[in-house]
Write a structure and sequence with these properties.
Rossmann fold; 4 strands
Length: 171
């Protein structure tokens, strides 16, 4: 019997950096182990993916061909994948009123400082994206290692909230 595949949505305001990175990380076979299907979306999608995000993903040999900036409304529409988990990765999206997700997925906030908001030269921006990527990678690896079949209800929610506080830097 094969293990269940969980659908995970990462949300951010613009869906151009953090949520795109998170989607890409969890979809990696060495991270998600085929147990997850990750998606990303934004409340006010930018319409394009930040070039520093694309550069970082390609540098790490992570596929970028099918990535696109899209609205969270796609995942509340009829025919959308049934979501098991919804994670906000930016503070703006966490405070916004989200669509009603069919199936009532488990939600958590995993705020990460916005690397696209960093001012300065290319080195400063690349460092900010690298930092965000590493923080997301650690949190997602922790999530992917949870025994989801054994954790239920409040216990699972507490674990997801704990992961969201892990390695949090000032924002």
């Amino acid at each position: 019997m094969s293990e269940r595949v969980y659908n995970v949505l990462f949300l951010c305001t613009g869906n151009s950096a953090r949520s795109i990175l998170a989607e890409s990380i969890l979809n990696l076979p060495l991270v998600g182990h085929g147990r997850f299907r990750a998606y990303s979306a934004g409340s006010h999608p930018a319409g394009t993916i930040n070039p520093y995000a694309i550069e970082l993903l390609r540098k790490n040999r992570i596929p970028t061909e099918n990535l696109r900036s899209k609205s969270w409304e796609e995942f509340a529409a009829p025919g959308a994948p049934a979501l098991d988990f919804v994670f906000t990765v930016c503070d703006n999206a966490a405070g916004e009123v989200c669509p009603v997700w069919p199936g009532q997925p488990i939600t958590a906030h995993w705020g990460i400082a916005d690397p696209a908001a960093v001012e300065g030269g290319e080195d400063a921006r690349r460092k900010a994206f690298f930092t965000a990527y590493n923080q997301l990678h650690r949190r997602i690896a922790m999530f992917a290692s949870l025994p989801l079949a054994r954790l239920k209800g409040l216990e699972l929610k507490q674990e997801l909230d704990r992961i969201g506080k892990f390695d949090r830097t000032s924002e």
